[in-house]
Design brief:
41% strand; 1 helix; Thrombin, subunit H; mainly beta; 111 residues; globular
């Protein structure tokens, strides 16, 4: 079966940013694994069903305070190689142009 090609509106950047809060609750087991100005992919032990609103707080390079991002869960998939963990696709409510600016400055890199 040929691989499905997805046309993206903006570039995604691979990262490993710790999520400090998820829906107002502190978490220690959630990461942002890729991000764009329009959305993010999170890895978490917290399953969130599609169409649910989500809000998360992450530290962004170059910012003194963590940034709160919010959007809607678009998809959720369990990780086969890591039982009990999930990838969540999040579409932001509004574009986050700070992310694109950080990427263009070379500050948004996987760690």
């Amino acid at each position: 079966m040929p691989k499905k090609i997805i046309q993206r509106r903006v570039k995604r950047y691979p990262v490993r940013l710790p999520v400090l809060e998820l829906n107002g609750q502190p978490v220690a087991d959630t990461l942002v694994v890729d991000v764009s100005s329009l959305g993010a992919r999170l890895e978490s032990t917290t399953p969130l069903a599609p169409r649910n609103p989500v809000e998360f707080v992450v530290p962004l390079p170059g910012y003194a305070d963590p940034v709160k991002l919010s959007g809607t869960v678009v998809w959720m998939r369990p990780l086969v190689h890591a039982p009990g963990r999930f990838h969540l696709g999040v579409q932001f409510f509004a574009p986050c142009w700070q992310i694109e600016k950080l990427a263009q400055e070379g500050l948004l890199a996987p760690s």
